[in-house]
Specification:
The structure is a homodimer of 455-residue chains.
Chain A: H1 16-35, E1 39-40, E2 46-48, H2 49-52, H3 57-63, E3 66-68, H4 79-84, H5 87-94, E4 95-99, H6 104-113, E5 122-131, E6 143-152, H7 158-174, E7 178-184, H8 185-195, H9 201-208, H10 211-225, H11 230-240, H12 246-256, H13 261-277, E8 285-288, E9 302-308, E10 317-322, E11 336-341, H14 343-353, E12 366-368, H15 373-388, E13 393-395, H16 402-411, E14 416-419, H17 422-427, E15 430-434, E16 440-443, H18 445-454
Parallel strand pairs in A: 1-5, 7-8, 12-13, 12-14
Antiparallel strand pairs in A: 2-4, 3-4, 5-6, 6-11, 7-9, 9-10, 10-11, 14-15, 15-16
């Protein structure tokens, strides 16, 4: 016997229950995106490597799955060249295409390629898998879905406001309590300017983030350890100790950044978004968090991140504004802002909190037991009638032992089983068994349909 | 300026309108599959090459997209070996994974890998893209979706009957008139046995298929040209001239194949399926067609194919029974039967016949014009109210010229535009413009919602 087949490490099969749950997640996000006027697009799994390479840093290039050219891929690479070159150089000769690494770069490529057809501002959403040759580990996969929404071609902060509303609406629908954290790249730039250490901003935010855990003294030690002068550390004190309401924090920052026009602009942007959101009756709290510093090289304005309150897990959604996404493809000056829901982590949170609606996994509602011959043919017709009424129905295909057929119904949590033997067939009735209560009663097919439709 | 980016040949981007249409197709198929108790699964885009290689013939192996191993993929291949080996052999050393080529082999792999968890009969459906390094041409892509449903673990011909019902239901929902063709591999085997030319069955069906076009004389000439004896050609005459109703054809075949137990079994199988279907009130005709010979090496029982009646295009759906799909993975004796809808061709047919329901592309229903400042903030709240009522709503993000905002509404076919200036805001009203009639009226937001919900 052959070895049991398997799938590549870091990839997953999804069975019926997992699919039902995943579809619930994707459908919820899709519905909210649509409600806000975002339009769905899809791009190919394979992009030209010229589109992907150099967009995710050196480490990212290594994590791209590259696709071997078809046919004589080796034709133009001599043995001498093969010996001389390293793996990355050879890969570039053997491969022209790669699997997409995220949805953002393909989106930028899409906008530039289709710019003549697109009406700005362009609001798109995209729910597709991406692939990364990361070392697989718990909760990190080599194939996973991203659920992105972006607006390009509009500088308005109302876009930021709407994306926050979307985040709030999606998690409210899921029943997941979250904290939405907001920051602004310009505030971080202002801080760096203020202390004259622009290149240390990541180290600084990492250190400040530890305040709760290690206390002010240790934070200051760490800041000195990464090379900040005593004067710089001194200037950072009001920022490290930042607390209070969002308005109080903003006021403190406004004073601390009084000399940085960029920093003040960042404060104004966050203030506008928070103020506008005050009238939106959000279900979740939005909190200014200066330690939020995701994707610094990439974002230029507001930055968001969402944390679940009731489960210990990393960020489950994130996003922000970028001012030059399409510049890499020769179309400068197009501002955009976007968010990305982390479907796999949301899946884990919904599982842990057991938040799936009961209807999520309801599959087949009615199974006809197969007694063979004329009875089975008759049941096919009854099943067709039930399906016309929208009731998901099966006829067990084989006339095997009743026990086996009932085991099938149980395994699939089918709530009702129909038994139509010779006598029921003659009388034009169905013996309907409620699999939860065990009760059985004799009904016409129309009565069966009425009962199931009422559920 | 950089060169305009592009996508790999044979791949496609899908914009908002195409996505709406494609989702309509996939959702329709999904709904019908679910109604019949099929359960959705998904498998990874990447499979181990050991799973894929050798399953699609020599030509198929060449059409697999192979994924270069990560890191030092070339480490174990010396320059000498590099020179000695051909492209296929080198590919096998450089690559362990490939993109799935269809949904059938991954499904077989899934069944074998998860057999302990699966309840037989196992009815699954799967709607995912597949990739083939085919030469791209009109209507043939390197990435395309397949929409498969299969039942494994049941020999019952009721499965064939249900799949025909599904085909009929799906195309009825689409409004596409079709002819469902049915044949049986065992009938073809019987014919080959009868004339003692088992290896020529494909040539024979190809020749017979030309009867309408070239006439009986030329068909017989062609049969002799592929090497059939005069006696064999003579024996084939009743089969070539086969006509009349399905029952008449079956009767003729029963006589012609009287000496072939296998052939007669095939006739019985088709007769059972057709007879059982007679009580199903199908909307489309099912026709026995002996020239139907798709995937001969693969199918072992009934074979189906669907042709659109009102558009000249190849088969838009196909399928059949196979008796040993999982045997290739060491799990013999599991019979299965399946169908596959050709989404891309169905898309073309729906386009040509203009059969998309009007609602398919309805996106945003209401756009608030942005007059800036306090008015815009007020509109955000009104928009939130409309969205709570399930109305897809946008607020134009920038306070630009009215003309530009109206152009945006027109480009996206938004049916209603809301204008809320200073006076409307003061009065608590909305000036609602019907973009089709051009009429404008003053309403409260609740009246706006009532009007749009009634649409």
């Amino acid at each position: 016997m052959a070895q049991k087949p398997s799938i590549p490490k870091g990839t997953r099969d999804f069975g019926a229950v997992e699919m039902a749950r995943r579809n619930y997640i994707f459908d919820t996000i899709r519905q909210v995106y649509s409600l806000y006027g975002f339009r769905q697009i899809e791009t190919p799994a394979m992009e030209n490597l010229s589109t992907l390479m150099g967009k995710y840093g050196e480490e990212g290039d290594k994590l791209l799955f590259k696709i071997l050219n078809s046919g004589d891929f080796n034709r133009e690479v001599s043995a001498a060249e093969y010996t001389e070159k390293n793996a990355a150089q050879l890969a570039a000769r053997f491969c022209e295409k790669g699997l997409r690494y995220d949805l953002t770069v393909p989106f930028a490529r899409y906008v530039v390629q289709h710019r003549e057809e697109l009406q700005m501002p362009f609001k798109r959403y995209q729910i597709q898998p991406v692939w990364r040759a990361d070392r697989p580990q718990k909760g990190r996969y080599r194939e996973f879905y991203q659920c992105d929404a972006d607006v390009v071609g509009s500088d308005s902060l109302l876009n930021e406001v709407e994306l926050m509303q979307i985040v709030d609406e999606v998690f409210t629908r899921f029943g997941i309590r979250v904290c939405i954290k907001i920051n602004n790249r310009k505030i971080l730039t202002g801080i760096a300017e203020m202390i004259g250490e622009a290149d240390k901003i990541v180290d600084i935010t990492v250190a400040i983030d530890k305040l709760d855990k290690i206390g002010l003294e240790k934070v200051n030690e760490e800041l000195r350890a990464v090379g900040l002068s005593d004067e710089a550390v001194q200037k950072l004190q009001p920022i490290i100790a930042l607390s209070g309401s969002n308005s109080e924090k903003l006021e403190t920052m406004r004073q601390a950044l009084a000399d940085s026009p960029t920093g003040l602009k960042g404060v104004d942007e966050v203030a506008f978004v928070l103020q506008t959101l005050q009238h939106s009756n959000l279900h979740n709290e939005v909190e200014l968090d200066l330690t939020l510093a995701r994707g610094l090289n990439y974002y230029t304005g507001c930055i968001f991140e969402v944390k679940a309150l009731d489960v210990q897990i990393g960020s489950i959604t994130g996003g922000g504004r970028y001012d030059n996404l399409t510049g890499i493809f020769g179309m400068p000056g197009l501002s955009g802002v976007g968010i990305s829901f982390g479907a796999d982590r949301i899946y884990d949170v919904l599982n842990q909190l057991n938040l799936y609606p009961a209807a999520t996994e309801s599959g087949v509602q009615l199974l006809f037991i197969n007694f063979g011959g004329a009875e089975a043919a008759h049941c096919l017709q009854l099943a067709a009638t039930a399906r016309q009424a929208g009731i998901a129905t099966e006829v067990y295909p084989d006339a095997v032992k009743m026990k086996k057929q009932m085991a099938y119904a149980n395994a699939h949590h089918v709530p009702y089983v129909a038994l139509v033997g010779e006598s029921e067939m003659a009388e034009g009735r169905v013996a309907l068994k409620d699999m939860n209560s065990g009760e059985q009663c004799s009904l016409t097919i129309d009565e069966v349909i009425a009962r199931l439709a009422a559920r």
